[in-house]
Amino acid sequence: MRLYCDNLCFSYYQTPVLKNISLSLKEGELVSVVGPNGVGKTTLFKCLLGFLTPSSGNIYIQDKEIRSYTKKELSWEIAYIPQSYNPSFDFTVLDSVLMGCASKLGTFQIPSAEQKKKALSVLEKLGIKHLAGRGSTKISGGERQLMLLARALMQDANILIMDEPTASLDYGNSIMVMQNITHLCEKGYTVIFSTHDPNQARRFSSRILALKSGEIVSDGPPESLTSEVLKTLYGIDVSICEKCGGVTLGI
Q1: What is the per-residue pLDDT across 232-246, written as a single tens digit (0 to 9) for each?
Q2: Which residues of the chain are modeled with pLDDT < 70?
Q3: Would you identify the CATH topology of the domain 1-77+157-225?
Q4: How many Cβ atoms from other residues are within 10 Å of residue 169's Cβ?
Q5: Helices H / strands E in the chain, number of each
Q6: Domain residue limits, the chain
Q7: Phi, psi angles (nearest 5°) of residue 232
Q8: Which pLDDT value is given to residue 249?
């Protein structure tokens, strides 16, 4: 197991948010987390990243308890890609990606020629090498998400956590980002991401985790996200096309 949590609980000011969450992530898995707003998806991610300390339960990465990692060591194991990014300064795409090397550099060090070469290689694999010299404020939302993905890959972490990575993107950019994420999983990366789009979850995920009120409602392959589960999550009637697997409003 690359990542494992056992009976994870978390509360904000005595209010339970996560309740006995047990989860394991394997090499090459693309796991989506679905559920309505406020059910604990982002809180779960913050616990897995070490940003929050669980009320109880344990989290292990590579069979090592997360609390035994230093922040620098943890950055070598797990990387985070936020749902949106609006840079305050117009750093080039290449410089923004090289920021992913920060945990490997000393206080006054700058990225080496070898690290720059690697960053260009990562950009090429994601199809945006031609943007290397362009300012990060002058590219599209989809291109910016791929830039953030490239920056995360420069950490050399094998686990990627993505909080609604396509939430602010149009359909074309959303597909482009998800296809690149799928390719990374095919190469052995482990990815867990949240989404409000059940069609996206069913189309791209190898596994879907459904949360409601801080508890796991279902955890299984894409077909486990049934119309009954969706009604439990969102309180609406939906139908799932048996032929294409798409989710539509029930009639």
Answers
A1: 999 888 888 766 657
A2: 1, 84, 242-245, 249-251
A3: Rossmann fold (3.40.50)
A4: 21
A5: 8, 12
A6: 1-77+157-225, 87-156
A7: -60, -40
A8: 60
